[in-house]
Structure formats: structure tokens, C-alpha cells
Write a structure and sequence with these properties.
Radius of gyration: 21 Å
Largest sheet: 2 strands, antiparallel
Helix content: 40-55%
CATH architecture of one domain: Orthogonal Bundle
CATH class of one domain: Mainly Alpha
Strand order of the largest sheet: 1-2
Mean pLDDT: 81
Number of strands: 2
Distance between the termini: 69 Å
Order of helices and strands: HHEEHH
């Protein structure tokens, strides 16, 4: 199976190459190294990372118990305007 270069992975997952390197150092998204020390990524590992990331985002975007319905109309538009002359 062909390995992916960091630039291709970054475009696929929407992260910079420097962030990919950081994730590799943290052990979150491990990269393989060639004999020259260049990083390459296994496509299966990248796909698992993308799916896990999407699942976390979906979970964090879910509104708990319809709490968004509890906002009044003024809350939905932000705080009331302040009159600077008062």
C-alpha cells in the first residue's frame, strides 16, 4: 500500500504540515519514517483519524436536551446594544 506525504494528508484532513508533525510527536497521528527520516502516513491510519475526528465534532455539535430552544429572541441575537450617551 502506498504511503502518503504530509502535504497530501494535510489537504485531506484540513491541517497544516506543522500540526501533523505535532500530532506525530504527541503520538496521536503516528507517521512512519523512511531511511532519510521523512514522514509518511498509512492511508488506513489517516482514514481512522478522519472518522474519529468527525465523530468527535458531531458529538460536540449536538445540542444537549434542546437547550438552544431555551434562548429568548434577544439572546439569539447577542447582548442588547449599549447607548454610549447614557
Amino acid at each position: 500500500m502506498q504511503k502518503l506525504a504530509p502535504q497530501h494528508v494535510g489537504r485531506r484532513v484540513g491541517l497544516s504540515v506543522s500540526r501533523l508533525i505535532q500530532l506525530d510527536r504527541e503520538g496521536i497521528l503516528p507517521a512512519e519514517r523512511d531511511s532519510a527520516g521523512r514522514r509518511f502516513y498509512d492511508p488506513d491510519v489517516i482514514e481512522a483519524f478522519v472518522q474519529a475526528r468527525q465523530a468527535r465534532r458531531a458529538k460536540s455539535n449536538a445540542s444537549p436536551c434542546g437547550s438552544h430552544e431555551q434562548l429568548s429572541s434577544t439572546d439569539a441575537h447577542g447582548p442588547p446594544a449599549v447607548n454610549p450617551t447614557e
